[in-house]
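Appendix C reproduces, verbatim, an entry submitted by the partner laboratory led by Prof. M.T., so that reviewers can inspect both the input and the predicted structure.
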Amino acid sequence: EMFRLKVTAFENFFFKYFGFLMKESERTRFNGTVPYFLANFIVVLFFSPEIAVLSILFLVVGDPTAAYIGSRFGKNRFYNGKSREGIIGFSLAAFLVGVIVLYLITISHPNSAFSLKDGSNFRLYPILLVAFGVTASCLTEFFSTTSTNGLIDDNLLIPISGALTLAVSLFLISGIPMDQILFNPTNLYLTK
């Protein structure tokens, strides 16, 4: 991307053959995949697998849902052009996918702190964690702008804010020490 932005001939070649993969606004700034990959790297490096997967999915599912619903059905617009319908679409889609992930964690790793069951007892707090994470991610999407030549945008900020919210909420609700919530290669899944 740095090479593309600095060498006009390469940028023209790239945009001619691969421009269909980019937004017009990305022609003079970093492509959205750069902050996306940076966010993935950060959350995978610093957080447990459950938190990393959930926070990345908040972006991967919520952001395009908000864009689609907002552009197609958005009638109630805010000062930044985003719509109430898009926000609702983001929230519902990200929350639904989050609950599905919790269910899959419950099946595959029943001792995980994100498991919906503790033995035969149902646990509500993993659903609350997802709700908090989705809310933080949705607010980040609503307020985020693109800066630093496209390096800082919602593709970077949504997963990081979601991961931080999940981690802090898990610490506050369950009392699991933060050193267990953050990535630890010797303990790949959070246990209760």
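The beta strands are 117-118, 121-122. Additional entries are available on request from the coordinating office.
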